[in-house]
Amino acid sequence: MKKVILLFFALLITVSGYSQGVLSLFTRSQEFLKAMEQEKFQEAQGFFDESVKSKISPENLQTIWTTLTTNYGKYVGMDVVQSKAEGDYFTVAVDAEFEKDTQGFLLVFNKGEKLMGLFPRQVNKVSAYVKPAYVDTTAFKEKEVYIVTPGHSLVGLLTTPAKGTNFPIVVFLHGSGPSDMDETVGPNKPFKDLAAGLASKGIASIRYVKRTLAYSGDFNKAFTVKEEVMDDALAAVALAKNTPGVDKSKIFVFGHSMGGMLAPKLAIQAPEIKGIVIAAAPARKLTDLIEEQNKNSVAQAKDTTGNLQKQLDEVLKETAKTRFTTLGKMKPDSVILGLPASYWADLNQYDQVATAKKLVKQKIFVVQGAFDFQIAQQDFDLWKAGLSKKSNVSFKLYPDLNHLFIPQKEKGDMSQYAIPGSVSGVLVEDVANWIKAK
Description:
The chain is α/β, with parallel strands linked by helices. It has 2 domains: 23-121, Nuclear Transport Factor 2, Chain: A (Roll); 137-285 and 323-436, Rossmann fold (3-Layer(aba) Sandwich). It contains 14 helices and 14 strands. The protein has helices at residues 23-37, 41-45, 50-53, 58-72, 190-199, 211-214, 225-241, 258-269, 286-301, 307-320, 341-348, 352-357, 377-387, 425-436; strands spanning 75-86, 89-98, 102-109, 115-121, 140-149, 152-161, 167-173, 204-208, 246-256, 273-279, 335-336, 339-340, 363-369, 393-398. Strands 5-6-8-7-9-10-13-14 form an 8-stranded mixed sheet, with helices on both faces. Strands 1-2-3-4 form a 4-stranded antiparallel sheet. A two-stranded antiparallel sheet has the order 11-12. Helix 7 crosses helix 8 (258-269) and helix 9 (286-301) runs antiparallel to helix 10. The longest helix is centred in the middle third of the chain and has 17 residues, at 225-241. The chain is globular, with a radius of gyration of 23 Å.
Protein backbone atom coordinates (compact mmCIF):
# COMPACT_ATOMS: atom_id res chain seq x y z
CA MET A 1 0.00 0.00 0.00
CA LYS A 2 2.76 2.43 0.85
CA LYS A 3 4.15 2.23 -2.67
CA VAL A 4 1.27 4.19 -4.14
CA ILE A 5 1.24 6.94 -1.54
CA LEU A 6 2.87 9.83 -3.36
CA LEU A 7 2.93 12.34 -0.54
CA PHE A 8 3.01 15.95 -1.69
CA PHE A 9 5.53 16.95 0.93
CA ALA A 10 7.94 14.28 -0.31
CA LEU A 11 7.87 15.15 -4.00
CA LEU A 12 10.71 17.62 -3.85
CA ILE A 13 12.83 15.94 -1.20
CA THR A 14 16.44 16.34 -2.32
CA VAL A 15 19.83 15.11 -1.32
CA SER A 16 21.80 18.07 -0.06
CA GLY A 17 24.28 19.35 -2.59
CA TYR A 18 26.55 20.48 0.22
CA SER A 19 26.91 20.38 3.98
CA GLN A 20 25.93 23.01 6.50
CA GLY A 21 28.65 25.56 7.23
CA VAL A 22 31.20 24.83 4.49
CA LEU A 23 30.39 27.64 2.08
CA SER A 24 33.64 29.42 2.91
CA LEU A 25 35.43 26.44 1.39
CA PHE A 26 33.63 27.14 -1.88
CA THR A 27 35.21 30.58 -1.90
CA ARG A 28 38.60 29.04 -1.14
CA SER A 29 38.12 26.63 -4.04
CA GLN A 30 37.20 29.48 -6.39
CA GLU A 31 40.17 31.58 -5.24
CA PHE A 32 42.55 28.64 -5.74
CA LEU A 33 41.38 28.04 -9.31
CA LYS A 34 41.47 31.77 -9.97
CA ALA A 35 45.13 31.86 -8.91
CA MET A 36 45.80 28.94 -11.24
CA GLU A 37 44.01 30.72 -14.11
CA GLN A 38 46.12 33.83 -13.53
CA GLU A 39 49.23 31.62 -13.51
CA LYS A 40 50.09 32.73 -9.98
CA PHE A 41 51.42 29.29 -9.10
CA GLN A 42 53.41 30.43 -6.07
CA GLU A 43 50.22 31.94 -4.66
CA ALA A 44 48.28 28.79 -5.54
CA GLN A 45 50.82 26.70 -3.61
CA GLY A 46 50.07 28.90 -0.58
CA PHE A 47 46.59 27.39 -0.40
CA PHE A 48 48.13 24.07 0.68
CA ASP A 49 48.93 23.05 4.25
CA GLU A 50 52.59 23.18 5.26
CA SER A 51 52.65 19.40 5.64
CA VAL A 52 52.04 18.86 1.92
CA LYS A 53 53.67 21.92 0.35
CA SER A 54 56.93 20.06 -0.24
CA LYS A 55 55.07 17.55 -2.39
CA ILE A 56 53.26 20.16 -4.51
CA SER A 57 55.63 22.73 -5.96
CA PRO A 58 54.63 25.76 -8.05
CA GLU A 59 56.21 23.94 -10.98
CA ASN A 60 53.92 20.95 -10.41
CA LEU A 61 50.90 23.22 -10.42
CA GLN A 62 52.10 24.97 -13.58
CA THR A 63 52.47 21.62 -15.34
CA ILE A 64 48.95 20.59 -14.30
CA TRP A 65 47.42 23.86 -15.50
CA THR A 66 49.35 23.93 -18.77
CA THR A 67 48.16 20.41 -19.54
CA LEU A 68 44.55 21.35 -18.78
CA THR A 69 44.52 24.51 -20.89
CA THR A 70 46.34 22.81 -23.76
CA ASN A 71 43.75 20.02 -23.87
CA TYR A 72 40.61 21.91 -22.90
CA GLY A 73 41.23 25.56 -23.75
CA LYS A 74 40.73 28.69 -21.65
CA TYR A 75 39.31 28.36 -18.12
CA VAL A 76 35.72 29.66 -17.89
CA GLY A 77 34.65 29.05 -14.30
CA MET A 78 33.69 26.43 -11.75
CA ASP A 79 30.58 25.00 -10.16
CA VAL A 80 30.45 23.22 -6.80
CA VAL A 81 28.83 19.81 -7.15
CA GLN A 82 28.99 18.51 -3.59
CA SER A 83 30.77 18.82 -0.27
CA LYS A 84 31.14 16.29 2.46
CA ALA A 85 32.65 16.09 5.95
CA GLU A 86 35.13 13.22 6.21
CA GLY A 87 36.31 13.02 9.82
CA ASP A 88 38.71 15.93 10.35
CA TYR A 89 38.61 16.87 6.66
CA PHE A 90 36.16 18.40 4.20
CA THR A 91 35.97 17.38 0.56
CA VAL A 92 34.64 19.75 -2.07
CA ALA A 93 33.78 18.32 -5.50
CA VAL A 94 33.88 20.90 -8.28
CA ASP A 95 33.44 20.93 -12.02
CA ALA A 96 35.99 23.25 -13.66
CA GLU A 97 34.62 24.44 -16.98
CA PHE A 98 36.99 25.14 -19.85
CA GLU A 99 36.19 26.29 -23.39
CA LYS A 100 36.30 22.78 -24.87
CA ASP A 101 35.36 20.52 -21.96
CA THR A 102 34.84 20.22 -18.20
CA GLN A 103 37.27 18.64 -15.74
CA GLY A 104 36.18 17.48 -12.30
CA PHE A 105 38.33 17.97 -9.20
CA LEU A 106 38.10 16.87 -5.58
CA LEU A 107 39.65 19.38 -3.19
CA VAL A 108 40.41 18.14 0.33
CA PHE A 109 40.60 20.78 3.09
CA ASN A 110 41.54 20.53 6.75
CA LYS A 111 39.80 22.41 9.55
CA GLY A 112 42.13 25.35 8.98
CA GLU A 113 40.77 25.64 5.43
CA LYS A 114 44.12 24.62 3.99
CA LEU A 115 44.31 22.22 1.05
CA MET A 116 45.55 18.74 1.87
CA GLY A 117 45.07 17.32 -1.60
CA LEU A 118 43.86 17.97 -5.14
CA PHE A 119 42.56 15.02 -7.11
CA PRO A 120 40.93 14.62 -10.55
CA ARG A 121 37.41 13.22 -10.58
CA GLN A 122 35.16 12.08 -13.37
CA VAL A 123 32.43 14.49 -14.39
CA ASN A 124 28.97 13.00 -14.58
CA LYS A 125 27.93 14.91 -17.67
CA VAL A 126 24.42 13.51 -17.57
CA SER A 127 23.72 15.18 -14.25
CA ALA A 128 25.90 18.28 -14.47
CA TYR A 129 24.32 21.61 -13.56
CA VAL A 130 23.86 23.87 -16.58
CA LYS A 131 24.33 27.60 -16.05
CA PRO A 132 21.50 29.54 -17.73
CA ALA A 133 22.41 31.59 -20.78
CA TYR A 134 20.80 34.68 -19.23
CA VAL A 135 23.19 34.74 -16.26
CA ASP A 136 25.95 37.36 -16.28
CA THR A 137 28.39 36.30 -13.56
CA THR A 138 30.20 39.64 -13.72
CA ALA A 139 27.04 41.51 -12.76
CA PHE A 140 26.78 40.22 -9.20
CA LYS A 141 28.64 38.95 -6.16
CA GLU A 142 27.75 36.41 -3.48
CA LYS A 143 28.41 36.36 0.24
CA GLU A 144 27.84 33.70 2.86
CA VAL A 145 25.18 34.65 5.43
CA TYR A 146 23.37 32.90 8.25
CA ILE A 147 19.67 32.84 9.08
CA VAL A 148 19.69 32.79 12.87
CA THR A 149 16.80 31.90 15.19
CA PRO A 150 16.96 30.58 18.78
CA GLY A 151 18.88 27.30 18.68
CA HIS A 152 19.32 27.33 14.90
CA SER A 153 21.71 28.80 12.34
CA LEU A 154 21.09 28.13 8.66
CA VAL A 155 23.80 28.83 6.12
CA GLY A 156 22.75 30.84 3.10
CA LEU A 157 23.92 33.04 0.24
CA LEU A 158 23.32 36.74 -0.21
CA THR A 159 23.48 37.59 -3.91
CA THR A 160 23.80 41.30 -4.70
CA PRO A 161 24.37 43.38 -7.84
CA ALA A 162 28.06 44.20 -8.33
CA LYS A 163 27.26 47.87 -8.83
CA GLY A 164 24.74 50.36 -7.50
CA THR A 165 22.67 50.73 -4.36
CA ASN A 166 19.01 50.93 -3.37
CA PHE A 167 18.30 47.65 -5.11
CA PRO A 168 15.27 45.40 -4.43
CA ILE A 169 15.83 42.11 -2.62
CA VAL A 170 14.03 38.76 -2.80
CA VAL A 171 13.81 36.08 -0.12
CA PHE A 172 13.33 32.58 -1.53
CA LEU A 173 10.91 30.24 0.21
CA HIS A 174 11.37 26.52 -0.47
CA GLY A 175 8.94 23.88 -1.54
CA SER A 176 8.07 20.99 0.76
CA GLY A 177 10.51 18.53 2.27
CA PRO A 178 14.20 18.95 3.15
CA SER A 179 15.97 21.20 0.67
CA ASP A 180 19.30 22.89 0.12
CA MET A 181 19.49 26.59 -0.63
CA ASP A 182 19.37 26.05 -4.41
CA GLU A 183 16.26 23.83 -4.10
CA THR A 184 18.30 21.20 -5.93
CA VAL A 185 16.37 18.49 -7.75
CA GLY A 186 18.72 16.17 -9.62
CA PRO A 187 21.02 18.39 -11.73
CA ASN A 188 18.52 21.27 -11.58
CA LYS A 189 18.84 24.21 -9.19
CA PRO A 190 15.82 26.52 -9.59
CA PHE A 191 16.72 28.96 -6.81
CA LYS A 192 20.31 29.26 -8.04
CA ASP A 193 19.01 30.04 -11.54
CA LEU A 194 16.56 32.62 -10.21
CA ALA A 195 19.05 34.29 -7.86
CA ALA A 196 21.68 34.65 -10.59
CA GLY A 197 19.13 35.66 -13.21
CA LEU A 198 17.58 38.34 -11.03
CA ALA A 199 20.99 39.58 -9.87
CA SER A 200 21.99 39.96 -13.51
CA LYS A 201 19.09 42.42 -13.71
CA GLY A 202 20.01 44.38 -10.59
CA ILE A 203 17.93 42.52 -7.98
CA ALA A 204 19.46 41.02 -4.83
CA SER A 205 18.31 37.86 -3.07
CA ILE A 206 18.75 35.62 -0.05
CA ARG A 207 18.49 31.85 -0.22
CA TYR A 208 19.31 29.42 2.56
CA VAL A 209 19.33 25.78 3.60
CA LYS A 210 15.94 24.69 4.87
CA ARG A 211 15.71 23.74 8.54
CA THR A 212 14.28 20.31 7.75
CA LEU A 213 17.60 19.47 6.07
CA ALA A 214 20.03 21.13 8.47
CA TYR A 215 18.20 20.10 11.67
CA SER A 216 16.33 16.97 10.65
CA GLY A 217 16.37 15.71 14.25
CA ASP A 218 14.03 18.53 15.24
CA PHE A 219 11.23 16.97 13.21
CA ASN A 220 10.90 13.65 15.00
CA LYS A 221 8.31 15.20 17.32
CA ALA A 222 5.28 17.48 17.13
CA PHE A 223 5.79 20.51 14.91
CA THR A 224 3.92 22.86 12.56
CA VAL A 225 4.83 25.09 9.62
CA LYS A 226 5.98 27.64 12.21
CA GLU A 227 9.04 25.53 13.00
CA GLU A 228 9.36 24.10 9.49
CA VAL A 229 9.17 27.37 7.53
CA MET A 230 7.86 30.52 9.15
CA ASP A 231 10.42 31.26 11.88
CA ASP A 232 13.33 31.07 9.47
CA ALA A 233 11.48 32.97 6.73
CA LEU A 234 10.79 35.85 9.14
CA ALA A 235 14.47 35.89 10.13
CA ALA A 236 15.46 35.96 6.46
CA VAL A 237 13.15 38.92 5.83
CA ALA A 238 14.71 40.72 8.81
CA LEU A 239 18.18 40.02 7.41
CA ALA A 240 17.11 41.34 4.00
CA LYS A 241 15.82 44.51 5.63
CA ASN A 242 19.21 45.15 7.25
CA THR A 243 21.37 44.31 4.24
CA PRO A 244 23.56 47.25 3.14
CA GLY A 245 22.56 48.69 -0.24
CA VAL A 246 19.01 47.33 -0.11
CA ASP A 247 15.98 49.57 -0.60
CA LYS A 248 14.07 48.63 2.56
CA SER A 249 10.78 49.50 0.87
CA LYS A 250 11.37 46.84 -1.79
CA ILE A 251 11.57 43.50 0.00
CA PHE A 252 9.92 40.65 -1.92
CA VAL A 253 9.31 36.94 -1.33
CA PHE A 254 9.40 34.26 -4.01
CA GLY A 255 7.54 31.25 -2.64
CA HIS A 256 7.74 28.05 -4.65
CA SER A 257 5.24 25.20 -4.26
CA MET A 258 4.53 24.96 -0.54
CA GLY A 259 6.58 28.11 -0.08
CA GLY A 260 4.10 29.89 -2.34
CA MET A 261 1.24 28.43 -0.36
CA LEU A 262 2.69 29.96 2.82
CA ALA A 263 3.81 33.27 1.25
CA PRO A 264 0.50 35.05 2.07
CA LYS A 265 0.87 33.95 5.70
CA LEU A 266 4.38 35.38 5.77
CA ALA A 267 3.21 38.66 4.20
CA ILE A 268 0.62 39.07 6.96
CA GLN A 269 3.24 38.50 9.67
CA ALA A 270 5.83 40.71 7.97
CA PRO A 271 3.97 43.78 6.60
CA GLU A 272 7.28 45.32 5.50
CA ILE A 273 7.22 42.89 2.56
CA LYS A 274 6.45 44.80 -0.65
CA GLY A 275 5.13 41.84 -2.61
CA ILE A 276 5.01 38.06 -2.97
CA VAL A 277 5.38 35.69 -5.90
CA ILE A 278 3.11 32.67 -5.52
CA ALA A 279 4.84 30.17 -7.80
CA ALA A 280 3.34 26.75 -8.63
CA ALA A 281 1.57 26.79 -5.30
CA PRO A 282 -1.39 24.68 -4.17
CA ALA A 283 -4.63 26.53 -3.55
CA ARG A 284 -6.23 23.43 -2.05
CA LYS A 285 -5.70 21.39 1.10
CA LEU A 286 -2.71 19.07 1.39
CA THR A 287 -5.04 16.07 1.68
CA ASP A 288 -6.73 16.96 -1.62
CA LEU A 289 -3.35 16.97 -3.36
CA ILE A 290 -2.28 13.65 -1.89
CA GLU A 291 -5.52 12.05 -3.01
CA GLU A 292 -5.24 13.55 -6.49
CA GLN A 293 -1.67 12.38 -6.92
CA ASN A 294 -2.50 8.85 -5.82
CA LYS A 295 -5.47 8.69 -8.19
CA ASN A 296 -3.31 9.94 -11.06
CA SER A 297 -0.61 7.41 -10.23
CA VAL A 298 -3.08 4.53 -10.36
CA ALA A 299 -4.66 5.83 -13.58
CA GLN A 300 -1.28 6.10 -15.29
CA ALA A 301 -0.32 2.58 -14.23
CA LYS A 302 -3.22 1.15 -16.31
CA ASP A 303 -3.50 -1.85 -14.02
CA THR A 304 -6.01 -4.41 -15.39
CA THR A 305 -5.93 -6.66 -12.33
CA GLY A 306 -7.77 -4.25 -10.06
CA ASN A 307 -5.10 -4.65 -7.36
CA LEU A 308 -3.95 -1.04 -7.51
CA GLN A 309 -7.53 0.19 -7.26
CA LYS A 310 -7.98 -1.86 -4.10
CA GLN A 311 -4.79 -0.35 -2.71
CA LEU A 312 -5.98 3.11 -3.69
CA ASP A 313 -9.24 2.55 -1.81
CA GLU A 314 -7.20 1.73 1.29
CA VAL A 315 -5.01 4.80 0.80
CA LEU A 316 -8.04 7.06 0.51
CA LYS A 317 -9.31 5.69 3.82
CA GLU A 318 -6.01 6.72 5.38
CA THR A 319 -5.94 10.18 3.81
CA ALA A 320 -9.49 10.80 5.07
CA LYS A 321 -8.07 10.59 8.60
CA THR A 322 -6.10 13.78 8.03
CA ARG A 323 -9.15 16.00 7.55
CA PHE A 324 -9.31 17.59 10.99
CA THR A 325 -8.68 21.09 12.30
CA THR A 326 -8.44 20.41 16.03
CA LEU A 327 -6.54 17.71 17.89
CA GLY A 328 -9.30 16.70 20.24
CA LYS A 329 -7.97 13.69 22.16
CA MET A 330 -5.13 13.07 19.71
CA LYS A 331 -1.57 13.57 20.88
CA PRO A 332 0.24 16.34 18.94
CA ASP A 333 3.03 13.93 17.98
CA SER A 334 0.70 11.21 16.70
CA VAL A 335 1.91 10.39 13.18
CA ILE A 336 -0.59 10.30 10.30
CA LEU A 337 0.72 9.75 6.78
CA GLY A 338 4.23 10.60 7.92
CA LEU A 339 3.36 13.91 9.60
CA PRO A 340 2.42 14.71 13.22
CA ALA A 341 -1.20 15.45 14.07
CA SER A 342 -0.13 18.96 15.16
CA TYR A 343 1.01 19.65 11.58
CA TRP A 344 -2.27 18.49 10.02
CA ALA A 345 -4.42 20.49 12.44
CA ASP A 346 -2.39 23.66 11.89
CA LEU A 347 -2.30 23.38 8.10
CA ASN A 348 -5.97 22.46 7.80
CA GLN A 349 -6.90 25.67 9.61
CA TYR A 350 -5.00 27.71 7.03
CA ASP A 351 -6.78 29.05 3.94
CA GLN A 352 -4.09 30.44 1.66
CA VAL A 353 -6.42 32.07 -0.85
CA ALA A 354 -8.48 33.78 1.87
CA THR A 355 -5.26 34.95 3.51
CA ALA A 356 -4.01 36.40 0.21
CA LYS A 357 -7.32 38.28 -0.13
CA LYS A 358 -6.46 40.17 3.07
CA LEU A 359 -3.32 41.62 1.50
CA VAL A 360 -4.19 45.13 0.37
CA LYS A 361 -0.96 47.14 0.18
CA GLN A 362 1.33 44.27 -0.88
CA LYS A 363 1.27 43.21 -4.49
CA ILE A 364 0.97 39.59 -5.62
CA PHE A 365 2.17 37.74 -8.72
CA VAL A 366 0.71 34.24 -9.25
CA VAL A 367 2.65 32.12 -11.76
CA GLN A 368 2.17 28.53 -12.89
CA GLY A 369 3.45 26.17 -15.58
CA ALA A 370 0.80 24.35 -17.63
CA PHE A 371 3.12 21.31 -17.84
CA ASP A 372 3.31 21.07 -14.04
CA PHE A 373 2.35 17.48 -13.15
CA GLN A 374 2.63 18.09 -9.40
CA ILE A 375 0.39 21.13 -8.93
CA ALA A 376 -2.51 21.10 -11.36
CA GLN A 377 -3.79 24.07 -13.34
CA GLN A 378 -6.87 23.70 -11.17
CA ASP A 379 -4.90 25.34 -8.36
CA PHE A 380 -3.89 28.26 -10.57
CA ASP A 381 -7.54 28.67 -11.55
CA LEU A 382 -8.56 28.68 -7.88
CA TRP A 383 -6.02 31.41 -7.11
CA LYS A 384 -7.34 33.38 -10.06
CA ALA A 385 -10.98 32.91 -9.08
CA GLY A 386 -10.28 34.07 -5.55
CA LEU A 387 -8.00 37.01 -6.31
CA SER A 388 -8.81 38.27 -9.83
CA LYS A 389 -10.95 41.15 -8.57
CA LYS A 390 -8.04 42.58 -6.58
CA SER A 391 -6.10 45.34 -8.35
CA ASN A 392 -2.83 44.38 -6.62
CA VAL A 393 -2.71 40.87 -8.14
CA SER A 394 -1.24 39.71 -11.48
CA PHE A 395 -1.41 36.24 -13.01
CA LYS A 396 0.51 34.35 -15.67
CA LEU A 397 0.21 30.76 -16.90
CA TYR A 398 3.23 29.55 -18.88
CA PRO A 399 2.16 26.94 -21.46
CA ASP A 400 5.44 25.00 -21.64
CA LEU A 401 6.88 25.07 -18.09
CA ASN A 402 6.91 22.32 -15.45
CA HIS A 403 6.88 22.54 -11.66
CA LEU A 404 10.49 23.77 -11.61
CA PHE A 405 9.62 26.36 -14.30
CA ILE A 406 11.90 24.61 -16.78
CA PRO A 407 10.64 24.47 -20.40
CA GLN A 408 9.28 21.06 -21.52
CA LYS A 409 7.65 19.54 -24.59
CA GLU A 410 5.00 17.69 -22.57
CA LYS A 411 3.64 17.38 -19.03
CA GLY A 412 5.70 14.24 -18.33
CA ASP A 413 6.60 12.79 -14.94
CA MET A 414 9.38 12.71 -12.31
CA SER A 415 11.92 11.52 -14.88
CA GLN A 416 12.03 15.10 -16.20
CA TYR A 417 13.91 16.14 -13.08
CA ALA A 418 16.89 13.95 -13.97
CA ILE A 419 17.52 16.02 -17.13
CA PRO A 420 19.52 19.25 -16.72
CA GLY A 421 17.58 22.39 -17.54
CA SER A 422 17.27 26.02 -16.53
CA VAL A 423 14.43 28.11 -15.16
CA SER A 424 12.78 29.91 -18.08
CA GLY A 425 14.40 33.21 -19.00
CA VAL A 426 10.93 34.52 -19.79
CA LEU A 427 9.84 33.84 -16.20
CA VAL A 428 12.98 35.53 -14.83
CA GLU A 429 12.31 38.56 -17.04
CA ASP A 430 8.66 38.69 -15.96
CA VAL A 431 9.48 38.48 -12.26
CA ALA A 432 12.21 41.14 -12.60
CA ASN A 433 9.85 43.51 -14.43
CA TRP A 434 7.10 42.90 -11.87
CA ILE A 435 9.50 43.67 -9.00
CA LYS A 436 10.72 46.86 -10.65
CA ALA A 437 7.24 48.09 -11.64
CA LYS A 438 5.69 50.76 -9.42
